[in-house]
Structures are given as C-alpha cells and as structure tokens.
C-alpha cells in the first residue's frame, strides 16, 4: 500500500471564549463595593504551520478533527480569565487549503515556517464590571464567551518542483529521473511502475540547480478519471517548465506524434492554464534502431500541424540508458527556467477574502424569519444566533438585555409584519418563548 497521501478532508474548531463573571466586591471597610466580575479569556486559534520535514498528508488520514482549547472563565476581583494557547497543526510545503463548503481557496502554503489561521478563537465574554453605569451601578449582567470558528477544510498537496516530467507509462520518465538526480524511483518493465510522484534535485555542469518531479504516467482519458494520472495531475500545476518525454522507438506500437497530442489534450482538459507552461520535447530511447527515422517523421508532423505564429517547442534527442544528450537537455531546461516566471495557481475569484476580525459579516442580514411545521416562528441568522449564544440566561437582567437587543434589531416589527400574534411560539435553536404583542 502506498504511504503517499495528497488529499485530505478535516474539521477544525477554534476555542470558545471564556464566560464573563457576575461578582460583587464585599469587604469590611469598603461600602458600596460594586461589581467585581472579570472578563473571560480568548479561545485558541487553529493555526497551520508549514513544516519542510513533512512530505505527505498522511498525518491527516487518521486524525481528522482538530479542536483548540477554550479560554478560562472570568474571576472575581475583576480578574480576566487566561486566554487559551493556539493549536498548531503542521502541514507539508505545497499545501493548498480550501473551505470544503464554498470551495474557495483560503491559503496556499509554500514557504517553510509560513503560518495561517484557519479558524479564529472566540473573544471572552464581558464580566459585570463592564456593564456598570451611573443608572445601574450594580448590574447582574455578564456575557458568555463568543463561540470559536468551526469549519470543514479540504487539503490538497501539490509538490514543489520547478520541472515536471510527463508522458505515457513506460516512456522512461523514472529512468531519466534516476540518471539526472540522486533519486531512486522504482523502475520496471510494466505500466504504472510509478504510482506516486518522485522528486529529485538536478545540478547542471554550469552549477545551476532545480527540482524535477517524475509524475505517474498519463493515458488517454486521464483527466476524466482513467488510469492513475487523474489523481496526480494537480502536481503539474506548480511546475514552471514541462519536459514532455516521448518514446521515440515506438516500442509500444504507438505513434510518437499521436502520443504527444494525446498527453497535451489531457493536460488541457484538466486545466487549460497548464498549456501556458513552456514545454521541452524529450525524444527518449534514441539508442533503439527505429528511433532516428521516427524522430524525423515526428518533426515533419510537428512542423506541418503547428501554427506559423507559434514558436515551435525545442526537441532534444536523448537516451537515458546511454546518457546521450543529457547535459544539453539540462542546460536548456535551466536556461528556460531562468526566463520563465512563477505561474499564479489561483485568481482572485477562487480566493476567499481573509477576515480581519472573526465576528459579524456586516453585509449579511441580521436575522431571518421562517415557519416550522408546528406553526412556530423560527429566528435564525449568524448575528442573532451569536447574540443568543453569548447571553447568560441564568440572569434575569441579561434576558431583558437580549429582549431589548432583539427589539433594536427590528425582530418584533418583522414578526408583526409577517402576521405573528400575541401568544405565538417563537424559536431560536432549541430555545422557545412566547411572542408578546
């Protein structure tokens, strides 16, 4: 069984804020001591940190739930509760994080040590010392802590390589990688010997160096799920240059030019932007008897079918077995890399705007009204539900404050406009109360 894992779906839950406290100062020589309840502490964030020592998402195969600690409750003597420490989750370089519900990209983690907060902890609730006013110098009001952010995430690992080797199975990609780098990929005389991406570092004779990824062989229909290629095509997205390896000996009985067209079609079908990457055609197995003639025919077909305004890709005849032509190929690849910029993987429409503060969305409606099967009115909405969660219903003053907040938000008027009558049942989550007109 392969231990390489490049996708995972997990759930993260930031810590809730600690509850504020209701307390009063009672000391022998301090008359009219007043409120003395402190605020709750902040809940812990869930933070992703890039660890260059990790190579796969295997750690997320068996551990799919990550929950940060909640903040401590407020204490007497006006003391704040302790804030919770952030939960640090290590991920490999090249991890893309998406919101599983919206599909939006939250971040692309590519630098060692890079950090990103994927779930924000809730703020602590205020103690009654915060609610003292000249009109109410001894309030019995406190807030519960704000709930921490909770979300489901889709993780995708796209390996960091400057150059990607693509081509049909058994065209010699793994052999080429083993010759030009110190990598030791599995090599066999059968299809799909390579079942996971292999990575190696190349150093040219002129001193240039770059990373090369050998990707599992593609076949026709890979972008629609045929063969192994579909699950590894994502790793080509980070590469800046593609080395298109072709078996010029036609040992499998296929036409090399048809192979070239078929693989490009799969790359285009998977992601149209992959065709923006410059390609170098690697005519492999030139030590075989028929290769020279096949290469001549290949070049004729390429020229005949290429647009006169487009630049023809470079073709380098090589033999991985005899190491013929390798230094020329590597020098040309390094030269092409130097003048090829990084490609943006995601545009703004795919990226989710980072919230400066985890709180209410000002553009979202404050509440929504619907009707349940038992004729009860149901109130919902992020702002209203968060206010409800942060209300301490054990204190009568807090309940009255929540009622005033609902009235100020226009809930009473909206219910009347929808036809609510005195005595109708109103529901917020599992909490129920009667509507009083």
Automatic annotation (TrEMBL):
Pfam families assigned to the protein according to its UniProt record, in alphabetical order: DUF1967, GTP1_OBG, MMR_HSR1
GO terms for MF: GTP binding; GTPase activity; magnesium ion binding
Predominant localisation class: cytoplasm
Domain OCT: 359-437
Keywords per UniProt: Cytoplasm, GTP-binding, Hydrolase, Magnesium, Metal-binding, Nucleotide-binding
List of residues binding GTP: 167-174, 192-196, 214-217, 284-287, 319-321
Protein localization: Cytoplasm
UniProt enzyme class: hydrolase
Job description of the protein: An essential GTPase which binds GTP, GDP and possibly (p)ppGpp with moderate affinity, with high nucleotide exchange rates and a fairly low GTP hydrolysis rate. Plays a role in control of the cell cycle, stress response, ribosome biogenesis and in those bacteria that undergo differentiation, in morphogenesis control.
NCBIfam families: Obg_CgtA, Obg_CgtA_exten, PRK12296.1, PRK12297.1, PRK12299.1, small_GTP
This protein's name: GTPase Obg
Organism in which the protein naturally occurs: Streptococcus anginosus T5
